[in-house]
Design goal:
With 230 residues, this protein is α/β, with parallel strands linked by helices. The chain has eight helices and five strands, in the order βαβαβααβααβαα. It has a five-stranded parallel β-sheet with strand order 3-2-1-4-5, sandwiched between helices.
């Protein structure tokens, strides 16, 4: 057990980060949740993140405004159409336009700064490199490299007063395994939001990569997806 050590958890409001938060609590950490209002078109995920944070009993939940629409370059932050109805083979063929340039690097850097002020050396992120859309910043190599950076770029690391660890407990799990794990820990997936292109009521499209991966996971887990679809 972690003995109620503080930990910073990146919380998007999706099913992966909700599962990670439950795992962090189960391991005995005292979680501080961090979300970003980065100009994403699927802003409903921020409402989901707030609901998940409350249900997950976080110590504090901070939503940082960081408008990445200033750079654009992604279907999530720019006037670019979100791909729909792609096959599994197409999703594995390259990096899609829903990739937000350097997003996880930026988010983890902010999380690292907050962790230093909290006296925390554990950061948790819900990246996955099995059932995912091919994002380069969701791979184990990225997590290992950022961990090295964290210990080179901080006072805590340089003075040897601790060692930062970036935990990615879902990185080698399938979506079905993630869902099964979360359900065993009491996660309410009805609070989560995964769709990249929801309608004005926040209902999921059921056709983007994220929806396809979510629906596939629930099907393989033998559980009905509680999300609302168009």
């Amino acid at each position: 057990m972690a003995g109620e050590r503080p930990a910073v958890v990146l919380l998007s409001g999706g099913l992966d980060s909700a599962t990670v938060l439950a795992m962090v609590r189960d391991e005995g950490f005292r979680p501080f949740a961090l979300s970003f209002d980065y100009g994403q078109r699927h802003r409903f995920e921020l409402d989901a993140a707030r609901a998940v944070a409350v249900a997950g009993g976080v110590q504090r939940h901070v939503v940082v405004p960081l408008d990445l629409r200033a750079f654009g370059g992604s279907a999530l932050t720019d006037d670019i159409e979100v791909p729909k109805d792609r096959t599994g083979e197409e999703m594995e063929s390259g990096i899609p336009v829903t990739y937000v340039p350097a997003r996880n690097t930026i988010f983890l850097a902010v999380a690292l700064g907050w962790a230093e002020t909290l006296g925390a050396t554990d950061l948790f992120v819900g990246v996955n490199a099995v059932d995912y859309s091919g994002y380069p910043d969701c791979r184990p190599e990225f997590i290992a490299a950022f961990t090295d950076l964290a210990n080179l770029a901080t006072q805590v690391g340089v003075e040897g007063r601790g060692r930062f660890e970036v935990h990615a407990p879902l990185v080698a799990m399938t979506k079905a395994e993630i869902i099964t794990t979360g359900l065993a820990l009491g996660v309410d997936y009805g609070l989560t939001h995964s769709c990249y292109d929801p309608d004005e009521q926040g209902r999921s499209c059921g056709r983007c990569d994220s929806c396809h991966l979510r629906l596939k996971g629930f099907t393989e887990a033998g559980v009905e997806d509680p999300a609302a679809y168009q």
